Structures are given as structure tokens and as C-alpha cells.
């Protein structure tokens, strides 16, 4: 079969949190991301689904969370996304270390990786996250949100995800099938477990990289872990072609599922990480004006007639707003 159009990169990363208010406070106020959609988990409508992104919800910028309060603490291990990294403009890490000191965010010493400076830290649920200083092109598609963090230091979408995999070869072959190119490898003494880190690059400017590290360390899903990583398949045709390519690798992708703001296909890659293929349309502004994104609970169509029931079962939350 012919190769599918290559993925431009990461579309979104979805994680598991605990307390929903704590999650909102951290990602909006501390990290300066915009809440572009306040909704529910469509497979578990008694749980919120928060989408944090740039000012316009650009593909490649949205970190999303299911705050399952009763779930246990997770542990990162083989078959998971071990770290999610965001881009920040060059020279920003001094600002972020000072901000983390002010807000009591635990962070580690900077490391150098593939010629870039990386600042590892954790969110309130212990989720491993990183900031990576990168050069931001003048025509970069990300529109930084500047209500809490100034533009010269604001997060500019995803840089990469790191996959921990027991047998890395089938996963790396799949990434190449999806259109990512192996661009290098290096010893990775900052990662435990794991030794050699192999980097793959997608075709687009945002959410470009996927790093693969070998490990057999056991993990479990729960607070502070990634639920799945979604890759951009911008059009329906792109997604259909990628789905067939994934099937040709012996995997079992789902049929397309309507997620209201994008259309999705899911599958577990060979190492156990849950992957999603997500279209660009309709987008987060398809059901509320751009200026009003995130300001109210939005229920996808089939849930609207259950609004009273759903709202009654969700805890009250307040979206942080800057002092004027």
C-alpha cells in the first residue's frame, strides 16, 4: 500500500489528574495556558474534561485532563508516555525557575538533550513535565496566551513526548510508518530507567518530536500519568489513510469516533502506549466564540439533554482570572 500523508506532529496529550480545582489553578494560573474547553469525559460523563492550550486552541498545543478524584496515584513505566515537553522561547528558563520557586512547583536541575536545554518539573499530581528552550520562528502557528505569563516566556505548544517501551523496534518502525523520521540518538543519563534515547521528528513545527527509551520498569495508570497521546491527521482522508497504514502494521485501530471538536481513531501501539489520530476540524471554536472559550461547561450534543443531571454530579470549580 502507498504511504499515508505524514503526521505534522502531536495534536494533544491527555492525562489523569486528581482534584479538578487544583488542576485548573496550576495549568491556567501557574503555567499560563488558556482553558479553551470545559467539558466532560464523553465515556464517563460524571468526570470533567479540561483542555488547556494556546490562545486559539491551535492543534499541537492542547494538554487535556480527566480529573478522576477517586483513582489511585499512578506510576510511570513501560508502555506509557513518561514525559511531556513544551516549547518555550530561548532564554526563558530563568523566568520559569523563578516562577516555580514562587508557586512552590518542584523542579530538577536543567539538562542538555540533543543540543537543547531542558527543565524537568512536576504538576500537583506528580505528572512528569518538561520545558525546552527552542528558537521560535516568526511564522510559528502558536498564538501565546498572555493573561498570566508574558509573551516572551509563554509556552508555545508541545515540543515532544517520551515513550518508555520494553521492545523499542516495533514502535520505532510504526513511527516511521506514520511519517516521523529518525533524527538521532544519544545516551540519556538523566533518565532512569533507560539508557539510549532515540529521537523521531514529524513534519510540522509544533509537537514535532517523539523520543523512545527502552525500559522494562513496571507502571500503573493513575494520577500523574498520561492516558494517551494524539497525533495530527488533519483531514478525514489523512486519517483514513493513516488508519489503514496502522492496520498494515498488525495493529487494531478503532472506527472513527466523533469527539465533537475533532474526529478520532484509537489504537495501542506495539509497546502498549495508547495512540490517537485526531483531525484538525471542527476545532474548539466550533461551538462557542473564540473570545469565550472555556468560560462555561460545554456538553457535546448527545449530552445536552442531560445537562441538569450532569451538572449536579460535577464538583463546583472556578476558572482562575488575573487580577486587573
Structure write-up:
The chain is α+β, with helices and mostly antiparallel strands. It has one domain: 2,3-Dihydroxybiphenyl 1,2-Dioxygenase, domain 1 (Roll), CATH 3.10.180.10. It has helices at 20-30, 93-103, 168-177, 236-248, 307-313, and strands spanning 10-17, 34-41, 44-53, 62-67, 80-89, 111-113, 116-122, 128-134, 158-165, 181-187, 196-201, 209-214, 225-232, 257-258, 263-268, 274-278. Strands 2-3-4-1-13-16-15-14 form an eight-stranded mixed beta sheet. A hairpin with an 8-residue loop joins strand 3 (44-53) and strand 4 (62-67). It is globular. It starts with 9 loop residues before the first strand and ends in an 11-residue tail after the last helix.
Task: Give a brief outline of the structure.
The chain has 324 residues and is α+β, with helices and mostly antiparallel strands. It is 16% helix and 33% strand. The chain has a single domain (10-313), classed as 2,3-Dihydroxybiphenyl 1,2-Dioxygenase, domain 1 (Roll).
Amino acid at each position: 500500500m502507498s504511504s499515508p500523508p505524514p503526521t505534522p506532529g502531536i495534536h494533544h496529550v491527555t492525562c489523569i489528574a486528581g482534584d479538578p480545582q487544583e488542576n485548573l489553578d496550576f495549568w491556567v494560573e501557574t503555567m499560563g495556558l488558556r482553558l479553551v474547553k470545559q467539558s466532560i469525559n464523553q465515556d464517563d460523563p460524571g468526570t470533567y474534561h479540561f483542555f488547556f492550550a494556546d490562545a486559539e486552541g491551535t492543534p499541537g498545543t492542547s494538554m487535556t485532563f480527566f480529573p478522576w478524584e477517586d483513582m489511585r496515584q499512578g506510576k510511570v513505566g513501560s508502555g506509557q508516555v513518561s514525559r511531556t515537553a513544551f516549547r518555550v522561547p530561548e532564554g526563558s528558563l530563568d523566568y520559569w525557575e523563578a516562577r516555580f520557586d514562587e508557586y512552590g512547583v518542584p523542579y530538577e536541575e536543567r539538562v542538555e538533550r540533543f543540543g537543547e536545554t531542558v527543565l524537568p518539573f512536576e504538576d500537583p499530581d506528580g505528572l512528569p513535565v518538561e520545558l525546552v528552550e527552542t528558537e521560535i520562528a516568526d511564522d510559528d502557528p502558536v498564538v501565546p496566551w498572555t493573561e498570566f505569563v508574558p509573551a516572551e516566556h509563554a509556552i508555545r505548544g508541545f515540543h515532544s513526548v517520551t515513550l518508555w517501551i520494553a521492545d523499542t523496534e516495533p514502535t520505532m518502525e510504526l513511527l516511521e510508518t506514520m511519517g516521523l523520521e529518525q533524527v538521532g540518538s544519544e545516551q540519556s543519563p538523566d533518565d532512569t530507567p533507560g539508557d539510549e534515547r532515540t529521537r523521531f521528528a514529524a513534519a510540522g513545527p509544533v509537537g514535532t518530536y517523539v523520543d523512545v527509551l527502552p525500559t522494562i520498569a513496571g507502571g500503573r495508570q493513575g494520577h500523574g500519568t498520561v492516558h494517551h497521546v494524539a497525533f495530527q491527521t488533519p483531514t478525514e482522508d489523512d486519517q483514513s489513510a493513516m488508519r489503514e497504514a496502522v492496520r498494515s502494521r498488525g495493529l487494531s485501530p478503532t472506527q472513527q469516533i466523533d469527539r465533537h471538536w475533532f474526529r478520532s481513531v484509537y489504537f495501542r501501539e506495539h509497546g502498549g502506549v495508547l495512540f490517537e489520530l485526531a483531525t484538525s476540524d471542527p476545532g474548539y471554536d466550533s461551538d462557542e466564540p473564540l473570545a469565550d472559550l472555556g468560560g462555561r461547561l460545554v456538553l457535546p450534543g448527545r449530552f445536552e439533554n442531560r445537562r441538569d443531571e450532569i451538572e449536579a454530579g460535577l464538583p463546583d470549580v472556578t476558572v482562575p482570572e488575573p487580577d486587573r
